[in-house]
């Protein structure tokens, strides 16, 4: 494979995670090792920044700042949920790439972001433009296909499980057989995050909280929930429920939809699911029901970042650059679990055309027959992903996060209208 010399561009898209910046750090650190990569640019706010020719010089950042990204939540380059909609958008992409001699493009994001990366790779080939495109997965939802798990997932379920244990201590102190606590977590189309709350249970302690987990994979029936809660309260001082926001009824419709909300790609957005459950309990049982919704906090809780997750996110960034240098394009980095009983993980590659918009469902055979708890197969899968802690530095009692100085790259084209 002939060496390809030029500049590289890295961009982030979709919802941030605790470790998406660790992936960025891995990609930048690896790119610095190759003379054929002349400049390392970051695109601000995903594809919107590329269309607007808004680049920053990542090689100009200090190594201390790049290292600091490994414990910094959010997305240091900014993200977007914009989807390339018309031929002019793609033509503009390549105008920008030619103007800045972009020969390596790394896009960190979930399924629809990988669709964009795949389209860019295909068009580059069709137009004879030498470009190597590698997608890098990220999503707390853990629902991307062809990868054992996604960077971001281990940290979010570590945070959710920790929160469950903390709430349980509070509920144990105040419950008198009449308290129901409902924790709503993210997950629009799958229950991976809600299922992860089951890790809060002690080993071989099935009655530990969360007592009930309601998943999008199991059609919700209000009458069953009422029976489930009554059963728990006959045994415990309180009932702690975890529910995925994407809970659906027997017809496959969200039980609760956020009014007027959309995700930027035209999809309806579930919301208020915890309050929906509370109303049912208030109307039928007349006991104390309280709700908590983690919302964006669960993907930004850097102090609960899993070291395993952070290390694998960094590894994915490195692997993307190595793959491109070795001549790969039109691929996404995947995480592959080892076959031995002792957990291990390495990277692989999957065609972007097979990744885009696919959804990996939570296996139904990992859910107990009761429909509200997870079995040992899920525990075996998820437990290794939350291991270890990331050392977050503190100053005056508060965590310190890294911030890019964002030295701008001079624009070379006329302005473009992003609609």
Key terms for this structure?
seven-stranded mixed sheet; 419 residues; elongated; 15 strands; four-stranded parallel sheet; alpha/beta; 13 helices
Please state how the strands of the largest beta sheet are arranged side by side. 3-2-1-4-5-12-13
Q: Strand share of the residues?
A: 15-25%
Structural class: alpha/beta
How many DSSP helices? 13
Outline: elongated
Spatial separation of the terminal alpha carbons: 39 Å
Tell me roughly what share of residues is in helical segments. Answer: 25-40%
Task: List strands and helices in order, with pairings.
Elements: E1 6-12, H1 20-31, E2 37-43, H2 46-51, E3 55-57, H3 63-68, H4 87-99, E4 102-109, H5 111-126, E5 132-137, H6 153-174, E6 179-185, H7 192-196, E7 212-214, H8 222-233, E8 238-244, E9 257-262, E10 268-270, H9 273-284, E11 288-293, H10 297-300, H11 307-325, E12 331-337, E13 345-351, H12 352-355, H13 376-382, E14 394-395, E15 398-399
Parallel strand pairs: 1-2, 1-4, 4-5, 5-12, 6-8, 6-11, 7-8
Antiparallel strand pairs: 2-3, 9-10, 12-13, 14-15
Helix pairs in contact: 1-11
Describe the fold and architecture.
There is one protein chain. The chain has 419 residues and is of the alpha/beta class. Helices cover 33% and strands 19% of the residues. It is built from 13 helices and 15 strands. The protein has helices at residues 20-31, 46-51, 63-68, 87-99, 111-126, 153-174, 192-196, 222-233, 273-284, 297-300, 307-325, 352-355, 376-382; strands at residues 6-12, 37-43, 55-57, 102-109, 132-137, 179-185, 212-214, 238-244, 257-262, 268-270, 288-293, 331-337, 345-351, 394-395, 398-399. The strands form 4 sheets. A 7-stranded mixed β-sheet has the order 3-2-1-4-5-12-13, sandwiched between helices. A 4-stranded parallel β-sheet has the order 7-8-6-11, with helices on both faces. Strand 7 (212-214), helix 8 and strand 8 form a beta-alpha-beta unit. The relative contact order is 0.19. The mean pLDDT is 94.
């Amino acid at each position: 494979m002939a060496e390809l010399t030029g500049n590289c561009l890295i961009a982030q898209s979709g919802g941030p995670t605790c470790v998406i910046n660790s992936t960025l750090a891995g990609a930048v650190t690896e790119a610095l090792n190759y003379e054929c990569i002349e400049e390392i640019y970051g695109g601000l706010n995903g594809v919107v920044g590329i269309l607007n020719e808004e680049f920053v010089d990542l090689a100009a950042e200090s190594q201390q700042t790049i290292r600091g990204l490994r414990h910094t939540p959010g997305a240091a380059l900014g993200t977007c949920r914009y989807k390339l909609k018309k031929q002019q958008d793609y033509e503009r992409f390549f105008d920008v790439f030619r103007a800045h001699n972009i020969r390596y493009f790394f896009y960190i994001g979930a399924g629809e972001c990988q669709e964009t990366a795949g389209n860019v790779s295909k068009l580059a080939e069709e137009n004879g433009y030498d470009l190597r495109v590698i997608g890098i997965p990220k999503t707390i939802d853990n629902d991307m296909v062809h990868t054992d798990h996604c960077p971001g997932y281990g940290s979010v379920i570590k945070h959710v499980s920790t929160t469950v244990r903390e709430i349980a201590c509070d509920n144990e102190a105040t419950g008198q057989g009449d308290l129901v606590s409902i924790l709503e977590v993210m997950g629009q189309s799958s229950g991976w995050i809600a299922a992860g709350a089951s890790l809060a249970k002690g080993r071989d302690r099935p009655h530990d909280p969360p007592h009930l987990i309601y998943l999008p994979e199991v059609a919700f029936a209000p009458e069953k929930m009422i029976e489930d809660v009554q059963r728990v309260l006959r045994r415990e001082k309180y009932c702690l429920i975890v529910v995925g926001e994407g809970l659906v009824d027997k017809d496959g419709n969200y039980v609760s939809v956020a009014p007027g909300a959309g995700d930027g790609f035209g999809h309806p957005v579930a919301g208020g699911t915890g309050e929906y459950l509370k109303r049912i309990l208030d109307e039928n049982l007349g006991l104390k029901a309280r709700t908590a919704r983690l919302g964006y906090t669960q993907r930004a809780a850097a102090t609960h970042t899993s070291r395993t997750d952070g290390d694998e996110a960094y590894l994915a960034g490195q692997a993307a650059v190595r793959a491109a240098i070795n001549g790969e394009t039109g691929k996404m980095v995947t995480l592959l679990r080892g076959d031995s009983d002792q957990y291990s993980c390495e990277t692989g590659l999957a065609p972007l055309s097979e990744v885009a918009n696919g959804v990996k469902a939570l296996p139904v055979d990992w859910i107990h027959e009761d429909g509200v708890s997870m079995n040992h197969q899920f525990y075996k899968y998820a437990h290794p992903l939350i291991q270890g802690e990331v050392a977050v530095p503190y100053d005056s009692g508060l965590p310190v996060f890294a911030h890019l100085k964002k030295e701008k790259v001079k624009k070379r084209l006329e302005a473009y209208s992003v609609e």
